[in-house]
Amino acid sequence: MQVGSLLQQLDPSHLTVPHRSLPPSSALLERGEAHESAAGPCFEKAEIQRQRKKGGLLCDLFLEPDNHHLNSRSPVHGWGYFLDCMESERSKRMGNACIPLKRIAYFLCLLSALLLTEGKKPAKPKCPAVCTCTKDNALCENARSIPRTVPPDVTSLLFTSNSFDVISDDAFIGLPHLEYLFIENNNIKSISRHTFRGLKSLIHLSLANNNLQTLPKDIFKGLDSLTNVDLRGNSFNCDCKLKWLVEWLGHTNATVEDIYCEGPPEYKKRKINSLSSKDFDCIITEFAKSQDLPYQSLSIDTFSYLNDEYVVIAQPFTGKCIFLEWDHVEKTFRNYDNITGTSTVVCKPIVIETQLYVIVAQLFGGSHIYKRDSFANKFIKIQDIEILKIRKPNDIETFKIENNWYFVVADSSKAGFTTIYKWNGNGFYSHQSLHAWYRDTDVEYLEIVRTPQTLRTPHLILSSSSQRPVIYQWNKATQLFTNQTDIPNMEDVYAVKHFSVKGDVYICLTRFIGDSKVMKWGGSSFQDIQRIPSRGSMVFQPLQINNYQYAILGSDYSFTQVFNWDSEKATFVKFQELNVQAPRSFTHVSINKRNFLFASSFKGNTQIYKHVIVDLSA
Length: 618
What we know:
By secondary structure, the protein is mostly beta strands. It contains five helices and 43 strands.
């Protein structure tokens, strides 16, 4: 900044001071009452007081100790500028004679500050004690950490044989001209994501011969000038945390020397440069606890009605069917309505055209069919289910064959009949009784292809505590199910549930004592695929969420086990445990692109889990 320009701004007319109001400074000098300082002549305060007593106007500039204005390095250390203008009664007649001196004082203060600012130059950083520095280069050895006082003008920096093993964020901040960085032959185990932040001029980076097993994602972000990277001599573990490096190697323009995996075993000694992102399976899923419902339950079903999704839960002890809807504001499930009954075990919804019906199975008081009355906005009972056939219902399955709706009730009493009911336009009537006296505990509807046929045909599988699971096939001519065969060597099966993978049909068979099984349909019979220990299990439920196939095995004596389908091995692999007391059913509910798992509990709270997808490479 030019000082002369400031002088030009000063008004010369203000420099004229009335002599009759000012005592000559030479007189003061003759009396020895003025003194010299580094900034010029100054009056003592005593003289100022004497002038006031004489009358008139006294305006002058003097210096006093003032440590608040200048720092210790100032050439006028400890002094500040002050202007003391005092006036008596006589000064009132003199006008504003003090104003020019005020302006001079302000100008001198500003001028001094500018001179001091221009005169201060930062001290040139010295070379750290652990480094050897030249004009452009620095070599650091036996350092315990990255020094912070490396000269900012260096273009090449080398660290070798040092004792630190971690490099933190912004370790090289303040080195804008650095082009070559060598961190070689150390014992570096960890580098932070922003270690090299700010090194926009960096051309060559070497991390060779250290002990790195991984590198944080985006560690090279912002290094726009980088043309060569050397990562050789490290023990890289080629897992999902290093997937980003494989992707980066595929699109970077920098030259990267060949590097190799040290783990896991299947990738040992493989060249990282030759891997692709397809070699890494980094997407995993889990069920995370989302909500607790403070009541016990047996069966849980979901259904769509009037463009909304609902959940209905059977409560055996309160005898209610509780209907839940999704709260789009609170992002939770809330009560929608209920049907009150007695010892309710199943609440099965069925939507025919636009009308909602609910089949309520009860252990006492008979079972009934309800209709949703949209005008009254409530459920109305429209039909009783014949009590002579359905004495102790345990499961209900709904299905549609050739545009006709059916439901089947599995009866577990000694005198009951598992019975199929058909919709006739006004209600449901008994269509077929499958068999009596077998104490059926579960019924499953599925469609399979029987060799040499090519079309899928409807089938029912009945599970019973008194015989092996029985397979029934639909006869199109008679419009009835006929007994075909059973599943050999599978006594005491409590329930059978099916699922499909790539067109193949599988079933999960639940056993309370012994091993539960996974079996595959082979064209004429089911064949063993997998055995899973399942003491105390009453539910082995397969379910599909998006592209993920699961099977969930509940137990009265241990944690619930969640299995994921391994497509290569064609078996289930355990990957998670859930703490559910005495589970009886697991149901997938999908709402607003969110997926939930409802877990019923006969002894504890009903639980809701959220299906979460986790990317391990993120």
